[in-house]
């Protein structure tokens, strides 16, 4: 299936942990590279993989060539934080890291932008602020977590609420159903 229909407007890919959001995003990116003109940008907000959760877009050096590729250091708050206060502190640090790079694709004249794991921004950032930075870019393909894997907490409720605000503004929202059992527990927190 060709993904040319994603060559304009805003596309948001959402789903549970492990559902294939990043793989689908990568497939769309590779298809659009064949048919769409740049300049191109990628914002990769995914943390390094922890217990099967997260992970950067697996791009080769050749695929990154000629693109603006920005990936600030991100820590998965719900997996690393040992208390609710620490989770919120880590989320705030992530927001600051992301907001340093968020305007760069727009300011650089990027016409096709991909954002991997934008839900990490929504732990402390807002859909409105994101939209201010991406709203004028002609083609944006984004993905993010939208599910129940991490349970209910203040940070999960905020993330879900901001994701729903973004969904309402997008031209296309693709929900990828989970491949892993719905009742799987989240991975253990790191020591």
Notable traits:
single chain, 191 residues, Rossmann fold, six-stranded parallel β-sheet, globular
Short summary of the structure?
With 191 residues, the protein is an alpha/beta fold. It contains seven helices and six strands; from the N terminus they run E-H-E-H-E-H-H-H-E-H-E-H-E.
> Can you give the helix content as a percent range?
25-40%
CATH class: Alpha Beta
CATH H-level homologous superfamily name = P-loop containing nucleotide triphosphate hydrolases
The CATH architecture can be named as 3-Layer(aba) Sandwich
Low-confidence stretches: 181-191
How many angstroms does the end-to-end distance come to?
43 Å
Which strand order spans the largest sheet, edge to edge or round the barrel? 3-2-4-5-1-6
Question: What does this molecule look like?
Answer:
- By secondary structure, this protein is an alpha/beta fold.
- Helices cover about 35% and strands about 15% of the residues.
- It is built from 7 helices and 6 strands, in the order E-H-E-H-E-H-H-H-E-H-E-H-E.
- The protein has helices at about 20-35, 60-65, 75-80, 85-100, 105, 125-135, 155-170, and strands at about 10-15, 40-45, 65-70, 110-115, 140-145, 170-175.
- Strand 2, helix 2 (about 60-65) and strand 3 (about 65-70) form a beta-alpha-beta unit.
- Residues about 180-190 have low confidence and may be disordered.
């Amino acid at each position: 299936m060709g993904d040319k229909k994603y060559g304009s407007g805003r596309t948001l890919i959402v789903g549970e942990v492990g559902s294939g959001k990043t793989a689908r995003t990568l497939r769309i990116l590779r298809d659009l590279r064949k048919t769409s003109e740049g300049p191109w940008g990628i914002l990769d907000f995914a943390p390094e993989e922890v217990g099967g959760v997260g992970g950067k877009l697996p791009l080769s050096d050749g695929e990154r060539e000629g693109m603006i590729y920005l990936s600030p250091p991100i820590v998965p708050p719900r997996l690393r934080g040992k208390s609710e206060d620490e989770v919120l502190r880590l989320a705030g640090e992530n927001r600051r890291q992301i907001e340093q790079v968020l305007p760069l694709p727009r300011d650089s004249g990027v016409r096709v932008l991909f954002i991997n794991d934008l839900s990490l921004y929504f732990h402390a950032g807002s859909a409105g602020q994101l939209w201010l930075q991406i709203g004028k870019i002609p083609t944006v393909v984004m993905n993010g977590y939208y599910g129940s894997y991490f349970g209910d907490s203040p940070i999960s409720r905020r993330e879900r609420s901001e994701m729903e605000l973004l969904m309402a503004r997008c031209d296309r929202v693709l929900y990828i159903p989970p491949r892993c059992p719905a009742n799987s527990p989240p991975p253990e927190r790191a020591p």
